[in-house]
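ok new one. same drill as before - C-alpha coordinates go in, u give me an amino acid for every spot. 224 of them this time. try not to just spam alanines like last time pls lmao
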Protein backbone atom coordinates (compact mmCIF):
# COMPACT_ATOMS: atom_id res chain seq x y z
CA UNK A 1 0.00 0.00 0.00
CA UNK A 2 1.08 3.59 -0.56
CA UNK A 3 1.78 5.85 2.39
CA UNK A 4 -1.07 8.19 1.47
CA UNK A 5 -4.71 7.22 1.70
CA UNK A 6 -6.23 5.65 -1.42
CA UNK A 7 -8.16 7.76 -3.90
CA UNK A 8 -11.83 7.07 -3.22
CA UNK A 9 -14.12 6.43 -6.18
CA UNK A 10 -17.85 6.07 -6.86
CA UNK A 11 -18.93 4.02 -9.89
CA UNK A 12 -22.02 5.32 -11.69
CA UNK A 13 -23.41 3.10 -14.44
CA UNK A 14 -26.78 1.48 -15.05
CA UNK A 15 -25.15 -1.82 -16.08
CA UNK A 16 -24.21 -3.97 -13.11
CA UNK A 17 -21.69 -5.94 -15.15
CA UNK A 18 -19.77 -2.74 -15.96
CA UNK A 19 -19.66 -1.70 -12.31
CA UNK A 20 -18.61 -5.21 -11.32
CA UNK A 21 -15.78 -5.22 -13.85
CA UNK A 22 -14.46 -1.84 -12.73
CA UNK A 23 -14.67 -2.80 -9.07
CA UNK A 24 -12.77 -6.04 -9.75
CA UNK A 25 -9.99 -4.08 -11.45
CA UNK A 26 -9.71 -1.42 -8.77
CA UNK A 27 -9.58 -4.13 -6.09
CA UNK A 28 -6.15 -4.92 -7.55
CA UNK A 29 -4.95 -1.29 -7.45
CA UNK A 30 -3.34 -0.20 -4.20
CA UNK A 31 -3.96 3.53 -4.44
CA UNK A 32 -7.61 3.52 -5.60
CA UNK A 33 -10.58 2.30 -3.57
CA UNK A 34 -14.20 1.97 -4.70
CA UNK A 35 -16.38 3.23 -1.86
CA UNK A 36 -19.82 3.43 -3.51
CA UNK A 37 -21.86 2.56 -6.59
CA UNK A 38 -24.90 4.15 -8.20
CA UNK A 39 -27.20 2.98 -11.00
CA UNK A 40 -27.90 6.39 -12.57
CA UNK A 41 -27.38 10.11 -12.14
CA UNK A 42 -30.18 10.57 -9.62
CA UNK A 43 -28.96 7.65 -7.55
CA UNK A 44 -25.47 9.16 -7.63
CA UNK A 45 -26.76 12.49 -6.33
CA UNK A 46 -28.67 10.78 -3.54
CA UNK A 47 -25.68 8.71 -2.49
CA UNK A 48 -23.32 11.67 -2.71
CA UNK A 49 -25.62 13.65 -0.43
CA UNK A 50 -25.65 10.84 2.12
CA UNK A 51 -21.88 10.42 1.97
CA UNK A 52 -21.30 14.16 2.26
CA UNK A 53 -23.44 14.24 5.40
CA UNK A 54 -21.04 11.68 6.88
CA UNK A 55 -17.93 13.53 5.70
CA UNK A 56 -17.10 10.67 3.33
CA UNK A 57 -17.52 12.24 -0.11
CA UNK A 58 -15.50 10.32 -2.74
CA UNK A 59 -12.65 12.00 -4.56
CA UNK A 60 -13.69 10.92 -8.06
CA UNK A 61 -16.84 9.71 -9.83
CA UNK A 62 -16.60 7.43 -12.85
CA UNK A 63 -19.79 8.24 -14.71
CA UNK A 64 -21.59 6.96 -17.79
CA UNK A 65 -23.45 9.51 -19.91
CA UNK A 66 -26.42 7.44 -21.09
CA UNK A 67 -28.50 6.37 -18.09
CA UNK A 68 -32.20 6.36 -17.09
CA UNK A 69 -33.90 8.93 -14.85
CA UNK A 70 -31.05 11.46 -14.79
CA UNK A 71 -28.51 11.26 -17.60
CA UNK A 72 -24.82 11.67 -16.96
CA UNK A 73 -24.47 15.03 -18.68
CA UNK A 74 -27.12 16.65 -16.50
CA UNK A 75 -25.72 14.92 -13.44
CA UNK A 76 -22.22 16.33 -14.01
CA UNK A 77 -23.43 19.91 -13.74
CA UNK A 78 -25.42 19.24 -10.57
CA UNK A 79 -22.58 17.27 -8.98
CA UNK A 80 -20.04 20.00 -9.69
CA UNK A 81 -22.40 22.61 -8.24
CA UNK A 82 -23.30 20.69 -5.07
CA UNK A 83 -19.99 18.90 -4.53
CA UNK A 84 -17.22 21.02 -6.12
CA UNK A 85 -14.48 18.93 -4.52
CA UNK A 86 -15.67 15.81 -6.35
CA UNK A 87 -14.03 15.29 -9.76
CA UNK A 88 -15.98 13.54 -12.52
CA UNK A 89 -14.48 11.28 -15.18
CA UNK A 90 -16.82 10.19 -17.95
CA UNK A 91 -16.61 6.55 -19.05
CA UNK A 92 -18.96 5.90 -21.93
CA UNK A 93 -19.38 4.08 -25.24
CA UNK A 94 -19.95 7.22 -27.28
CA UNK A 95 -17.09 9.52 -28.23
CA UNK A 96 -18.76 12.03 -30.53
CA UNK A 97 -17.07 15.41 -30.32
CA UNK A 98 -20.32 17.13 -29.33
CA UNK A 99 -20.76 14.79 -26.35
CA UNK A 100 -17.18 15.27 -25.24
CA UNK A 101 -17.38 19.05 -25.46
CA UNK A 102 -20.67 19.09 -23.57
CA UNK A 103 -19.25 16.90 -20.80
CA UNK A 104 -16.14 19.06 -20.43
CA UNK A 105 -18.22 22.23 -20.47
CA UNK A 106 -20.37 20.74 -17.69
CA UNK A 107 -17.24 20.23 -15.58
CA UNK A 108 -15.92 16.74 -16.32
CA UNK A 109 -12.21 16.26 -15.57
CA UNK A 110 -11.77 13.43 -18.05
CA UNK A 111 -13.41 11.47 -20.83
CA UNK A 112 -12.71 7.83 -21.63
CA UNK A 113 -14.36 5.25 -23.85
CA UNK A 114 -15.39 1.90 -22.40
CA UNK A 115 -12.86 0.07 -24.54
CA UNK A 116 -10.03 1.88 -22.72
CA UNK A 117 -7.29 -0.21 -21.18
CA UNK A 118 -7.57 -0.75 -17.44
CA UNK A 119 -4.33 1.13 -16.79
CA UNK A 120 -5.70 4.15 -18.63
CA UNK A 121 -8.78 4.08 -16.40
CA UNK A 122 -6.57 4.22 -13.32
CA UNK A 123 -4.49 7.00 -14.89
CA UNK A 124 -7.63 9.07 -15.50
CA UNK A 125 -8.71 8.68 -11.87
CA UNK A 126 -5.27 9.72 -10.62
CA UNK A 127 -5.15 12.70 -12.99
CA UNK A 128 -8.59 13.87 -11.86
CA UNK A 129 -7.50 13.65 -8.22
CA UNK A 130 -4.50 15.87 -9.08
CA UNK A 131 -6.82 18.39 -10.71
CA UNK A 132 -5.66 17.51 -14.23
CA UNK A 133 -7.64 16.63 -17.33
CA UNK A 134 -7.30 13.20 -18.93
CA UNK A 135 -8.84 12.44 -22.32
CA UNK A 136 -8.95 9.33 -24.44
CA UNK A 137 -6.14 9.90 -27.00
CA UNK A 138 -8.46 9.52 -29.99
CA UNK A 139 -11.01 11.83 -28.44
CA UNK A 140 -8.33 14.44 -27.72
CA UNK A 141 -7.15 14.40 -31.33
CA UNK A 142 -10.69 14.83 -32.66
CA UNK A 143 -11.35 17.67 -30.27
CA UNK A 144 -8.28 19.64 -31.22
CA UNK A 145 -9.04 19.17 -34.94
CA UNK A 146 -12.65 20.29 -34.48
CA UNK A 147 -11.86 23.59 -32.80
CA UNK A 148 -12.59 26.82 -34.56
CA UNK A 149 -9.20 28.13 -35.62
CA UNK A 150 -9.68 31.56 -34.01
CA UNK A 151 -6.44 33.43 -34.41
CA UNK A 152 -3.44 31.74 -35.91
CA UNK A 153 -1.10 32.31 -33.00
CA UNK A 154 -1.06 33.55 -29.44
CA UNK A 155 1.18 36.51 -30.29
CA UNK A 156 -1.47 38.99 -29.13
CA UNK A 157 -1.50 37.52 -25.63
CA UNK A 158 0.59 39.24 -22.99
CA UNK A 159 3.04 37.24 -20.91
CA UNK A 160 0.57 37.21 -18.03
CA UNK A 161 -2.24 36.05 -20.33
CA UNK A 162 -0.04 33.21 -21.55
CA UNK A 163 0.40 32.17 -17.92
CA UNK A 164 -3.33 32.38 -17.34
CA UNK A 165 -4.06 30.36 -20.47
CA UNK A 166 -1.68 27.64 -19.30
CA UNK A 167 -3.47 27.48 -15.95
CA UNK A 168 -6.87 27.40 -17.67
CA UNK A 169 -5.62 24.42 -19.69
CA UNK A 170 -4.70 22.73 -16.42
CA UNK A 171 -8.31 23.07 -15.30
CA UNK A 172 -7.77 25.71 -12.61
CA UNK A 173 -10.64 27.94 -11.49
CA UNK A 174 -10.37 31.73 -11.30
CA UNK A 175 -9.74 31.48 -7.57
CA UNK A 176 -7.01 28.90 -8.07
CA UNK A 177 -5.42 30.98 -10.82
CA UNK A 178 -5.44 33.99 -8.50
CA UNK A 179 -3.74 31.98 -5.77
CA UNK A 180 -1.13 30.57 -8.13
CA UNK A 181 -0.24 33.97 -9.61
CA UNK A 182 -0.69 35.90 -6.34
CA UNK A 183 -3.29 38.25 -7.80
CA UNK A 184 -6.87 39.01 -6.85
CA UNK A 185 -9.68 36.81 -8.10
CA UNK A 186 -11.16 39.83 -9.88
CA UNK A 187 -7.89 40.36 -11.75
CA UNK A 188 -7.76 36.67 -12.64
CA UNK A 189 -11.30 36.90 -14.00
CA UNK A 190 -10.30 39.88 -16.13
CA UNK A 191 -7.30 38.02 -17.53
CA UNK A 192 -9.48 35.01 -18.35
CA UNK A 193 -11.97 37.24 -20.17
CA UNK A 194 -9.13 38.81 -22.17
CA UNK A 195 -7.75 35.39 -23.08
CA UNK A 196 -11.16 34.23 -24.34
CA UNK A 197 -11.62 37.41 -26.35
CA UNK A 198 -8.17 37.32 -27.94
CA UNK A 199 -8.31 33.63 -28.85
CA UNK A 200 -11.84 33.86 -30.20
CA UNK A 201 -12.99 31.09 -27.85
CA UNK A 202 -16.41 30.96 -26.25
CA UNK A 203 -15.47 29.00 -23.14
CA UNK A 204 -12.60 27.96 -20.90
CA UNK A 205 -12.68 24.45 -22.37
CA UNK A 206 -12.37 25.77 -25.90
CA UNK A 207 -9.51 28.03 -24.78
CA UNK A 208 -7.71 25.07 -23.22
CA UNK A 209 -8.07 23.01 -26.37
CA UNK A 210 -7.08 26.00 -28.52
CA UNK A 211 -3.88 26.23 -26.48
CA UNK A 212 -3.19 22.56 -27.19
CA UNK A 213 -3.78 23.08 -30.91
CA UNK A 214 -1.42 26.05 -30.98
CA UNK A 215 1.25 24.04 -29.18
CA UNK A 216 1.22 26.36 -26.18
CA UNK A 217 0.52 23.51 -23.75
CA UNK A 218 0.87 19.71 -24.07
CA UNK A 219 -2.07 17.71 -25.36
CA UNK A 220 -3.89 15.67 -22.69
CA UNK A 221 -3.23 12.65 -24.89
CA UNK A 222 0.52 13.28 -24.61
CA UNK A 223 0.62 13.67 -20.84
CA UNK A 224 1.75 10.70 -18.71
Amino acid sequence: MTAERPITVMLVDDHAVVRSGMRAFFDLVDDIEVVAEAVDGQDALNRLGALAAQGQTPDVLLLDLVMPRLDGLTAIGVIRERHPDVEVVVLTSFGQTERVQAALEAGAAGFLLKDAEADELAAAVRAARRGEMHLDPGVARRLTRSLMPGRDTGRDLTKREHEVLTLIAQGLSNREIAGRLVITERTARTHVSNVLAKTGCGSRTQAALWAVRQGLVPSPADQP
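The CA atoms of residues 144 and 189 lie 25 Å apart. and btw The first strand starts at residue 7 and ends at 12.
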